[in-house]
Amino acid sequence: MMLNLNRTHLRSYLVAGLLAIGVSGAVLPLQPVWAQVRGLPDFPDLVDQVGPAVVNIRTLEKTKPSSDAGNDEQMLEFFRRFGIPVPPNLPRSPRQERGQSEERQPRGVGSGFILSADGFVMTNAHVVDGADEVLVTLTDKREFKAKIIGADKRTDVAVVKIEAIGLPSVKIGDANRMRVGEWVMAIGSPFGLENTVTAGIVSAKQRDTGDYLPLIQTDVAINPGNSGGPLINMRGEVVGINSQIYSRSGGFQGISFAIPIDEAIRVSDQLRNSGRVTRGRIGVQIDQVSKEVAESIGLGKPQGALVRGVEAGAPAEKAGIEAGDIITKFDGKVIEKSSDLPRLVGSVKPGTRATVTVFRRGATRDLAVTIAEVPHEKPVQRTSSVPAKPPVTGPAQAMGLVVSELTDAQKKELKLRGGVRVETAEGASARAGLREDDVIVAIANTEVLNLKEFDQALAKTDKNKPVNVLFRRGEWAQYALIRPNR
Question: Pick the catalytic residue: 9, 116, 126, 247?
């Protein structure tokens, strides 16, 4: 068989042949080498493109003169009397300092990037939080006092404005198009070192480290002062805001996080329009769905958000959502994990009608809900414990349970249609996490309104298999899996 070789192929064979010769001189079988070499990324053009739109942010705070000027006078007298040089940090004239007004002292250093040519700058909320004055320095060394347009602590996004026109601005990219392993670059002011460039790759996406944000994880070197700076892809587009690091020492240890730019732009648009962010809510307390619970209730795989509690008068209650429901979809979007729900609901404008799909006792149903606005946080009011009552025994004793009926007053107080109260939980039920004063509202996917229904539902269960129990503890509902005694 003839093998047609050009010069490149011939060189490959020659190199392979040379490598095949051992120390002893023996020649090993000749193998062709088809090496594909990928070029390393080149960053200088990206720096030239994006760098001018990255800014340094310094914050100042007001400080009051020291109140112990009398002690300073005594110290000055001591130094003068013994001819000791006065330390530089001790005021030379405390009496004059008493009448001084408040001074502005450096508070922190961060980074940011210019969104538009008319001076809107995006950064982190924690960079400007508590600042009395914000100073923005451009790469051409021009410095401006900035006005804080708005800051949102939940997402750690802030927008400030400087009075300038014709400024270089960044190009916004699509964080959803990023792939794990893709090269990215950061520009910022770590430790106050302006215009510092670092690079790395996307390590992971959708990291759950915040209430409303699935963060981008990278191995780009990020340190204090990088906060608020841009994360840039190889097309020169901003795909995130560098925000957090994972560190035990306070310095970079190979794990950093960035806010996806699409989420940040959504927040910044609201801040620019109204100075604040409005978010939707439906009024539920949620939790993860474990694999065991999902299998025991017939859900299949562990997905969705388990509703542990529903606020009185909230949109969820009006829509018919109940404690113990599993919310599997919101407006047609699948809820893979519980943290997906607040993000999806939070992004919806209050007053909008949406469809919530819930899994309840083996079946799914769609419920219409009108989104409300997130109010100021307030402490959760706990329901007082249910008064004790003479226990009523029954089949539940096999699980270590002693349960009793709920009175009408207890049902009203707990806002329940029915259920049975746990008087004693021992053995298997105690190991499952049940305890005195819990109220069981369903067993084995069957709602129980009274002791009779509880006994009937329990009698139908397989005594050799785990039994799922939905119960209320205070205001919140949760599942327990009671395993048979071995």
Answer: 126
Spatial separation of the C-alpha atoms in residues 189 and 203, rounded to whole Å? 22
Catalytic (active site) residue 189: no
Distance between CA atoms of residues 481 and 469, nearest Å = 6
Cα–Cα distance for residue pair 292/345, rounded to 1 Å: 27
Are 429 and 401 a contacting pair, CB within 8 Å? yes
CA 28 to centroid of chain Cα atoms:
57
Q: CA-CA distances (angstroms) from residue 360 to 138, 280, 317, 328, 446? A: 57, 24, 15, 10, 10
User: Is 352 exposed, middle or buried (CB count within 10 Å of its CB: 0-12, 13-18, 19+)?
Assistant: exposed
CA 237 to chain centre: 23
- Residue 83 CA to residue 105 CA, distance in Å, equals 31
DSSP lists the bridge partners of residue 232 as 185, 238
State both tokens at 97: 């300092």
Choice among 111, 227, 296, 404 that is catalytic: 227
Q: Which of 72, 156, 325, 438 is catalytic?
A: 156
**Tokens linked to 315:** 């949109």
pLDDT tens per residue, the chain (486 residues)?
344 445 444 444 444 444 444 444 444 454 454 445 466 788 999 999 999 999 999 998 876 655 555 555 665 555 555 555 555 555 555 444 445 556 667 777 899 999 999 999 999 999 998 889 999 999 999 999 999 999 998 889 999 999 999 999 999 999 989 999 999 999 999 988 889 999 999 999 988 765 567 899 999 999 888 999 999 999 999 999 999 887 666 667 788 999 999 989 999 999 999 888 888 999 998 888 988 888 888 988 899 999 988 888 899 999 999 988 999 999 999 998 888 898 889 888 899 999 999 999 889 999 999 999 886 444 333 333 334 444 444 556 667 888 888 888 888 888 788 888 888 888 788 887 888 888 888 888 888 888 888 888 888 887 778 888 888 887 777 888 888 765
Residue 384 annotated to the active site: no
Domains of the chain (ranges; CATH) run 1-39 (no CATH), 47-64+102-277 (2.40.10.120), 280-373 (2.30.42.10), 395-482 (2.30.42.10)
The answer to whether 241 and 122 have CB atoms below 8 angstroms apart is: yes
Which residues fall within 8 angstroms of residue 79, CB to CB, at 6 or more apart?
85, 86, 87, 90
Cα–Cα dist 194/160, whole Å: 19
Structure tokens at 411: 């049902």
Token match 């270089």: residue? 168
Q: How far is CA 229 from its chain centroid?
A: 18
Based on the residue annotation, tell me whether 227 is a catalytic residue of this protein: yes
- What distance in Å separates the CA atoms of residue 346 and residue 284, rounded to the nearest whole number? 13
End-to-end CA distance of the chain: 72
